Amino acid sequence: MENTKHGNKYGLLQHIEEPKHPWETINMDWVTGLLQGGKENFNYFLFKVDRYSKSVRCLPCHKEGTAMDTALLFWKNIISTCGVPKIIISDRDPKFTS
């Protein structure tokens, strides 16, 4: 029996330089599987972590949200207050890459 790997090949790991300024490099990921809550029945959270200050922003949203919804969240909650990050680190979720 032959083991064959299917799917996309992953790139090589790259060294990530330490940021020199707040919100220059951020990590983003989804927290899923939550019970609906709040006035708007949110069931997802988008976490953004600033690698410089270790500051965390937790943005409530909906599972049904699209890549456009994610972009709007990002614009309203990061770019408009902190500027455009130089590096964004994510797991390449379709909501980040579409």
TrEMBL record:
<dbReference type="GO" id="GO:0003723">
    <property type="term" value="F:RNA binding"/>
</dbReference>
<keyword id="KW-0694">RNA-binding</keyword>
<dbReference type="InterPro" id="IPR012337">
    <property type="entry name" value="RNaseH-like_sf"/>
</dbReference>
<dbReference type="InterPro" id="IPR001584">
    <property type="entry name" value="Integrase_cat-core"/>
</dbReference>
<dbReference type="GO" id="GO:0005634">
    <property type="term" value="C:nucleus"/>
</dbReference>
<dbReference type="InterPro" id="IPR036397">
    <property type="entry name" value="RNaseH_sf"/>
</dbReference>
<dbReference type="InterPro" id="IPR050951">
    <property type="entry name" value="Retrovirus_Pol_polyprotein"/>
</dbReference>
<protein>
    <recommendedName>
        <fullName>Integrase catalytic domain-containing protein</fullName>
    </recommendedName>
</protein>
<dbReference type="GO" id="GO:0015074">
    <property type="term" value="P:DNA integration"/>
</dbReference>
<feature type="domain" description="Integrase catalytic">
    <location>
        <begin position="18"/>
        <end position="98"/>
    </location>
</feature>
